[in-house]
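Record copied across here:
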Amino acid sequence: MGWEIVREQHRNEPGKWSRLWVYEDIYKVLTKIKGTEAIEGIVVDVTHSRDIHERGIMGLHGKSFSAMTNLRLLSISNVHLSENLEYLSSELRIFEWNGYPLKSLPLCFHTENLFELIMCNSCIEYLWEGMKSFLKLKTINLSHSCNLITTPDFTGVPNLETLDLEGCTKLREVHPSVAVLTKLTVFVLKDCRNLSSFPSDIHGLKSLKILNLCGCLKLDKLPENIGEAECLVELDISRTAIRQVSSSIVQLKRLDKLSLHGCNGQRPETWFTFFLSLLLPNKNPDSMCLLMPPLSGLITLKKLNLSDCDLLHIPNDIGSLCSLEVLNLNRNNFDTLPPSINQLMKLDVLRVQSCKKLQLLPELPPAIGALYADDCTSLERISPPEQSTSSYTFLAFDNCFKLVESYGSHLAIMMLKLWLQIHSPGARPFISPGARPFIFRGARPFISHGAHPFIMYLPGSKIPKWFIHKSNTPSIKIGLPPHWLNNKLMGIAFAEVFDISDLVYCYKYDLHFDKGSLHSLFLLPHDVRKSDHVLLWFFLREQLDEASFEISDSTYVHAKIRIKNGNPKVKSFGIHLLYKEDLEYFDRHHLEEPPQV
C-alpha cells in the first residue's frame, strides 16, 4: 500500500519518488541522471535475478547521484561505473554497495551521519587517506574485497563497533589506530592470508568480544597484552603461524571459546622454504609444535580446540578449566592424556580422532557424553571410572583395532554396563519416544530433552554372541512372551554390521508393535573404514513405557532398518531384550567370544 502511494504522486517520474526499489525504475533514474532531492532511499538486490545479475546496471555516470541531496539509504549491488563518482549525499545513513567498482571512496564523501558502510566483494584498495571523521559510523564491512591492501586511520571513527575484513586476501597490515577503538566489539580478519602485521598494543580494545584471525597464514604473533581485551568472549587464531600465545591470556576472565586449530608454527611454504627444508631438515619435532599458553585462569572457557597442533603432550593444568564442555584434540602426537582431565566436571564432548600415537585413555570426567576416538590406531586401553557415574551416550572407535584386540567384545558390555548404572529406572528423566523421533546429527544424538540412547561404534564383523535374535537382512520380527514388559526389563539392544562398501549415511530405525510404531534416525559420517564395523544401539525401558500407544500387551516387535531409497547394505542385524539377569550373567561368565576383525 505504501509503495503505491509513493508511485501515485508522480506515476511516470520515478526521479521524484522518495523511495526506489524496482530495478527498471532505478536503472532509468541512474543512467539518465533523473534523480532529485526527493529521493531518500534506493534499494535493489540484483543478485536474486540471474539475468539482472549478469548484466547489472552498466555505464553509470559519475553524476548519477549528484542531485540526490537527501539520500539517506543506498543499498545496491552489481552496479558499474564508467567514471569516478562526483557526489554522494552527506545525509547517507546506510551505504551498502556489493561489488563496489572503484579503488576508494570518492573524495567528496563527507558524511557525518553515516551509520553503516558495507562494501562486500568490492574492488576497493583503500577506504580513505589520512584521517577522516565519521563520528556516527558503527559498522564497516569490506569482507571479500580482494584488492584491499591496508586499512585506514581509524582515529576519526571512535564509535565503530563492527569491523569485518574477512577474505581480504591482499591485506598486509592493520593500522595501529585500531587499538584506540574503545567501542569495537567484533573484529574479523578471517582468511586474510597475507596479513603479517597486527597492532602490538591493543590496550584500548576494552569492549572487544570477538577476535577472529583464522586463516591469517603469515601472522606469527599476538599482542603481548592480549589479556587487556578484558571483554573478549571468542578468540580464534586457527591456521595461523602463531606457535606461542602470551601468558597474559589468563587475564581473559570472560573467554568462552578459544580455537588454536592448526597452530603448529609452520608458515605457508614457498619454493625457497621448500628447498631450505631439504637442505636443513628440522630434526626436533618439539621445536615446531604449539607452545601451550597457561590455562589455569580461563575459568569461563567452554570450548577449546587444539586440533592439528602437533602437540606431544597435553599440559596437566587443563584440569583447571572448570567450565569446559567441548575439547577437541584431534590429530595430535601425544600418547596419553594427563590424569587431571578427569577433573573437567562439565566436559560433555571429547575428540581425540586420528591421534595415531595415543595408547591409553585415562579415567575420563563423569559427565562426558560423547567420546570420538576414531582412527586412534595405537589405542589399547581405556581406564574405566572408579565410580559408576559415566554418562557416555556415544562412543566412536572406528578403526581402533588394537582396542578390540585388548578387550574383545567385552568392551561393549563394559561400557554399556557403566551407562546403565546411571541411566537405570528412576535415575533421571527420560524422553518419550512417542513425542518425537531421536535424531542423530554428525555422529552425536540430538534430542530436545531427557536422556540420549546409548550408541557405540567399533570394528567387528559379527553380531555379539549374547544377541539371541539375528538376521542377515535389515529386518527382524520376533514374538513377545506374556508380561515381557516387566520391572526387570532394562531396554532393547540393537546391533548391526555395516558393509564398508555402503556409502549411505542416513539410517532410519523402526520398531513396529501391534498397536503402533516407534522411530529413530541415525546419521553415520562417511569415514574411511578398513574393515566391517558394528554399531550398538540401546533404548531404555522408560522410553518404551512413555510411548503414545498401548505397548505392554504387544505380542510381537518388528525391527527394521531403512534408508531413503531402498534397503541398506547390512551384513547382519540383531535385536535383544535386555533384562537385569543378563547383566548378572555377564558378571559371572565370559559369555562372548571376541568379534572377528
Remarks:
- The two ends are 71 Å apart (CA to CA).
